[in-house]
Design goal:
Aspartate Aminotransferase, domain 2, alpha/beta, 7-stranded mixed sheet, globular, 5-stranded mixed sheet, binds pyridoxal-5'-phosphate, Aspartate Aminotransferase, domain 1, 2 domains
Length: 392
């Protein structure tokens, strides 16, 4: 069966007492056992019976199983946020004296996690241009524990060659870890491109309508020891498992993800093309535009759609602030891939706490506005942008 059918019809792992048609939400912290033997088996991993919801919960497992089925992964673990998925994964592969090879172009909190939080525990950050393979090759050394990247960087929209990076990583016996939040995992096969561990902020496309925060670690089973460490060490000791309530909301989001994404990506493509006709916009950055420098590579890796995030550059910071203040329909908010379209000025918000020099290093420009395109009618979105630019 096709993915969209499977996304809807995954069966529960065990029959529900009342034949509930949708997944019941098991709001419980703990589970009772018939006797000491089955209890010992559950706690020592000899059975899959749930014991404690910091580590396992039937509603969360149902959500994880749906994604396992859609991606063909060996295991999927749902976390309380995208950042929890990222931090738990990096802590599972890194250690004092090791280093993470990555880019300066990435989500602000991930950058801060790697360059500041993890560095306090003796984990190095080796930052390089991941689109320059010779530089990557020089940057990886015997203490590297992974190559980490985002598939379309936010907000620079840079795309690296996953197959080539996987080849370098695997030659050095380290995993390629990719944050694929920018394009739903239902659209392309990241493991076929060489990704060993895929990370998703499910707060974004999956949650559908900004209902909840969540993160996923999609483990293809090709990084030795990783899966076991995640379930038997990280979940227990760091305690960032997804809640059953979030899993319920995100299961509903997953069931209609395909329908929403089709509209959102088509809206974004149409809008990107039309925004180029407005003289106040100096640049429209969207990998779906045929003359975007990453268009061909993005298409070959991710298929015909290019996501629902684009950026526009205006004359200066004042022009950006006045544009944002003038918006009537598009909401002033962070987050991505909500049903509503959203606008934000990354330099003064998400990247506001960084120094000017750090922002320069990360190519975060004062002139850039990030737009996340929702399910509205494209004409209405275009009209709002045009009036906010005060163009007739
Ligand atoms: C939002 C985001 C994250 C962090 O996810 P949270 O769910 O907000 O913790 C990580 N990576 C990317 C690319 C994101 O857009």
């Amino acid at each position: 069966m096709k993915k969209q059918t499977r996304a809807i019809h995954t069966r529960f792992q065990s029959p529900d007492a009342y034949n509930s048609l949708s997944m019941p939400v098991y709001h419980t912290a703990a589970y009772e056992f018939d006797n000491a033997n089955v209890m010992a088996d559950a706690f020592c991993g000899r059975s899959s019976a749930p014991d404690y919801s910091r580590v396992t919960n039937p509603t969360v497992i149902y959500f994880e199983n749906k994604i396992k089925d859609l991606t063909g992964a060996k295991d999927v673990i749902a976390f309380s946020s995208g950042m929890a998925a990222i931090s738990n994964s990096l802590m599972a592969v890194a250690g004092a004296g090791k280093n993470i090879v990555t880019s300066r172009h990435m989500f602000g909190n991930t950058y801060a996690l790697i360059t500041s939080t993890l560095s306090r525990f003796g984990v190095g950050a080796r930052l390089c241009d991941l689109t320059d393979l010779a530089e990557v090759e020089k940057t990886v050394d015997e203490n590297s524990c992974c190559i980490y990247l985002e598939i379309i960087t936010n907000p620079q929209m840079e795309v690296a060659d996953l197959r080539a990076l996987a080849e370098i990583a695997h030659r050095h016996n380290i995993p390629l870890i990719a944050d694929t939040t920018a394009i739903p995992f239902t659209e392309f096969d990241s493991h076929a491109l060489g990704v060993d561990i895929e990370i998703v902020s499910s707060t974004k496309y999956l949650s559908g309508g900004a209902t909840s925060i969540g993160g996923l670690v999609i483990d293809y089973g090709t990084c030795e020891g990783f899966g076991k460490r995640m379930r038997s060490e990280m979940l227990l000791n760091l305690g960032a498992y997804m809640t059953p309530h979030a899993a319920y909301m995100q299961t509903l989001g997953l069931e209609n993800l395909d329908a929403r994404y089709r509209i959102q990506s088509a809206n974004t493509q149409a809008l990107a093309e039309r925004l180029r006709t407005l003289p106040a916009i100096r640049r429209v950055n969207y990998v779906g535009l045929p003359d975007n420098p990453y268009h061909d590579l993005a298409r070959s890796q991710f298929g015909p759609t290019a996501g629902a995030m684009l950026t526009i550059d205006l004359a200066d910071r004042d022009a950006c602030f006045s544009f944002i203040n003038n918006l009537r329909l598009i909401r002033r908010a962070t987050n991505l891939f909500d049903n509503r379209s959203l606008a934000i000025h990354p330099a003064s918000t998400i990247f506001g706490p960084f120094t000017d020099e750090q922002r320069r290093d990360m190519d975060i420009l004062d002139t850039t506005i990030r737009l996340s395109i929702g399910l509205e009618d494209v004409d209405d979105l275009f009209d709002d942008i045009r009036q906010a630019l005060q163009e007739s």
